[in-house]
Amino acid sequence: MSKLPLVFVTRQIPETGIAYLSGRARIEVWEHKEPPPYQELVAKTQNSDGLLCLLTDRIDRQLIESSPHLKVISQMAVGYDNIDIVAATEKKIPVGNTPGVLTEATADLTWALLLAAARRIPEAQKYVKDGLWKTWEPTLLLGADLTEATLGIVGLGRIGQAVARRAVGFNMRVLYYGRTRKPEIENSLGVEFRQFDSLLAESDFVTVHAPLTSETKFMFSYKQFQRMKETSIFINTSRGLLVDSEALYRALCERQIAYAALDVTVPEPLTSQSKLLSLPNLIIVPHIGSASYKTRSKMALMAAVNLIAGLNQERLPNCVNPDVYN
Ligand code: NAP
Ligand code: GLV
Question: How many A from CA of 154 to the centre of ligand 1?
Fold first, then answer.
């Protein structure tokens, strides 16, 4: 019997993924809480036939070109901006990702942040825990209404649409900006297209769901925050680099915008010295958009299925560089 292929899994993942790999591959798992250091990642990948990686791993040209046995890269995430897709495609290595299964969980987290920012939940909780709650007060911790407010969605893909669907329940007007108009979705969800600047100027809430690319990097800098309403609330659950953090800090300090909530930052993780953490009008959570039990189990299984398909020279069910099959 021929030896099973060797796969390197860059962190402990939910059992669904490991169970699927078992018996189909020899598995080496990086057992530490933190990601493998880059040189370690290169060394492990050099000996592997398959790589199951996470968004915290830098999968660059050097790593790809120095891995002679590598047949497939499978990322347990939908975003893949950490992977040099051009280099992988040149080497005919298919790259897999996990779209769809995390859409609803990430939309839920977006709404959790939006509501928490609108109603200032972290400030309110701190107020209670600090022992300041003495009575009901007519003007204590006033926030923003959602009903009949305008929600601006940047990037109306899978997650953007799931966010829009949830806005119906709040009776909000929904605008979107994206690189392509989507007339069918405009009709089915009742959303309206706006140019980027108009969306910023008209929205009470702006939420970002575009991937990180050379076009979207720093899409939000000081100028964009200046265009937004002084009462507006900004949510980012896409990637930290879509936003110029320094500009966001300044906009929040100067009250160019009222509040922000981030699931993604630059850098990740933020250090405890980050000045962003000193802002009372900024909520930050540690990149937990897809972090529900069911969703992470589905992601791990999907990543494992992609990985084994690649090792068997079969088409990946979810492949981000289908050009490798041409
Ligand atoms: P998707 O379905 O591909 O949607 C992305 C949308 O962004 C598409 O509609 C796309 O337009 C649009 N877009 C692309 N480039 C753009 C640009 N330059 N300007 C404006 N819009 C642009 O992806 P998804 O599944 O919704 O995921 C979106 C992103 O969310 C991922 O790439 C990832 O970075 C992030 N994410 C984060 C978490 C988390 O834990 N916080 C979880 C999941 C995903 P087209 O329709 O023209 O392609
Ligand atoms: C998470 O950020 C993902 O891209 O899946």
Answer: 9
